Amino acid sequence: MRLSLLEILEATGGGEVGGTQVGETFSSFHTDSREVRQGGVFFALRGSQMDGRRFIHDAISRGAAAIVVERKTDIPTGIVEVVVPDSWKALYAVASYALARVNPLVVGVTGSNGKTSTKEMVAAVLGSRFAVHRTQGNLNTETGVPLTLLGLEPHHTAVVLEMGLQHAGDIAKLVRLAPPVIGIVTNVGTVHMEFFDSREDLAKAKGELVAALPESGLAVLNADNEFFPLLAQMTSARIASFGQDRGDYRVAGYRPLAGGGAEFTVRGTPVRISLDGRHQALNAAAALAGGEFAGVPIEEGAAALAEVKVEHRLEETTTPGGYILVDDAYNASPESMLAAFDTLAESPRTGRLLAVLGRMGELGALAEESHRRVGHRAAEVFDAVCVVEGDHAGLLAESAGAELVPDGAAAAAWVRRNAAEGDRVLVKASHGARLDEVVRELTAT
Questions:
Q1: Which one, out of 22, 138, 144, 365, has a CA that is 20 to 30 A from the CA of 110?
Q2: Among 305, 325, 359, residue at a domain's last position
Q3: 334 exposed, middle or buried (CB, 10 Å; 0-12, 13-18, 19+)?
Q4: Beta strand 66-69 pairing with 424-428
Q5: Is 57 part of any domain?
Q6: Angle subtended at Cα 228 by Cα 227 and Cα 234, rounded to the nearest 5 degrees
Q7: Distance between CA 278 and CA 252 in Å, rounded?
Q8: pLDDT averaged over every residue in the chain
């Protein structure tokens, strides 16, 4: 969104020091100096471990034309400073101003797994009737959501916001900024358990999304998940349930397709998606529920789902060696690991199944049991497994009967030794394991 300096000053209550005229406008907003574009606004946020003021000169060197900061700084003439009492509050105030100016339908999506895929599906479904803005990538954090709102334009009539968390209260903060009318909780698993005493506490933190919905809104909840009753009690909004075995929007007749993707029905309507796995079919059902509430007929929404693609989610590439690399290296939890295993196990194939796996993060007290459980299932599904060294990787390798290797280069070498033409090789771990580097090496021509 293009905002004038005067609008930024009025939204933040800040004072201008130096710089330009109040009528000057800005259209890009940043909290990471490395991402600053020419003429952009840089918010120098003060965190518990990092002070954004340290990166002001880097932001200016990359083209920042305005800086939002808590204390006046020695910067070059011609760069405007907006001095505010609290840089975080200033970011949220400007984002709130942008949201109010556009006033779109707000849809929030959270869950332990499937947030990004579901967000993309909801955006596609709504796109048949709305001008949709959505979270780019996985910018679902306390900075990502306000920056997403600052990307709104006057023509947008809906915004789909992915909302992540690490601690209780994180989502509550985001929904205060962008009050949703539709809230979707894909599931409650074990990811982020490092920060919670129990899975019930984690479920309540996810439920902050549906607790914020108005009575006239819609909570879309997973009827197959054990925390469905708890989440249903947390909202005063109407509830639409989805699931494999039960729910208002039940996935029926699921069938994986030889060319990739799957087909099934939801409420008697045929649905075909290009994404693999039953978990993606559930995400599609949730998107259809939200879309129907917003006025998109289920048949129309189903047609829109056929074109949805999500990068690094079981994304297949035929390598120079002739084997198929299945890239899901972006992130991992026990639930997403098992879902990926099941997807490959039931997909039509001619060759063997291999896997390069790595550690799963943020599991707290459940880490050991989770790595063992995932390893046991890997042993059942795959013909051969390689595990990259890391926290609890030894447990994973032992349970999977896998070869433990020291790093990504060794994992790539293992694949080249073991994979033959026609084989499928899954690569999956938490992002911190950096198995994306293995994918890049193996797919390079």
A1: 365
A2: 305
A3: buried
A4: unpaired
A5: yes
A6: 95
A7: 10
A8: 93
Distance between CA atoms of 371 and 98, rounded to whole angstroms? 44
pLDDT of residue 149: 98
Please compute the mean of the pLDDT values over residues 67-73 and round it to a whole number: 92
Domain count, the chain: 3
Residue with tokens 């949703």: 180
CATH of the domain at 71: 3.40.1390.10
Three-state secondary structure along the chain? CCEEHHHHHHHHCCEEECCCCCCCEECCEECCHHHCCCCCEEECCECCCCEHHHHHHHHHHCCCCEEEECCCCCCCCCCEEEECCCHHHHHHHHHHHHHHHHCCEEEEEECCCCHHHHHHHHHHHHCCCCCEEECCCCCCCCCHHHHHHCCCCCCCCEEEEECCCCCCCHHHHHHHHCCCCEEEECCCCCCCHHHCCCHHHHHHHHCHHHHCCCCCCEEEEECCCCCHHHHHHCCCCEEEEEECCCCCEEEEEEEECCCCCEEEEECCEEEEECCCCHHHHHHHHHHHHHHHHCCCCHHHHHHHHCCCCCCCCCEEEECCCCCEEEEECCCCCHHHHHHHHHHHHHCCCCCCEEEEECCCCCCHHHHHHHHHHHHHHHHHHCCEEEEECCCCHHHHHHHHCCEEECCHHHHHHHHHHHCCCCCEEEEECCHHHCCHHHHHHHHCC
Domain containing 181 equals 103-305
Nearest Cα neighbor of 228 from 208, 211, 207 is: 207
Q: Tokens for 227?
A: 């925390």
pLDDT at res. 70: 93
Tell me, yes or no, whether 233 lies in a domain. Answer: yes
**Is residue 95 included in any domain, yes or no?**
no
Cross-sheet strand order for the sheet of 324-328: 315-318, 324-328, 424-428, 353-357, 384-388, 403-405
pLDDT at position 57 over 70:
yes
pLDDT tens-place string over residues 32-43? 999 999 999 999
**pLDDT tens per residue across span 336-357:** 999 999 999 988 888 999 999 9
pLDDT of amino acid 49? 75
- The pLDDT value recorded for residue 42 is 97
- Render pLDDT for 143-164 as a digit per residue (tens, 0 to 9): 999 999 999 999 999 999 999 9
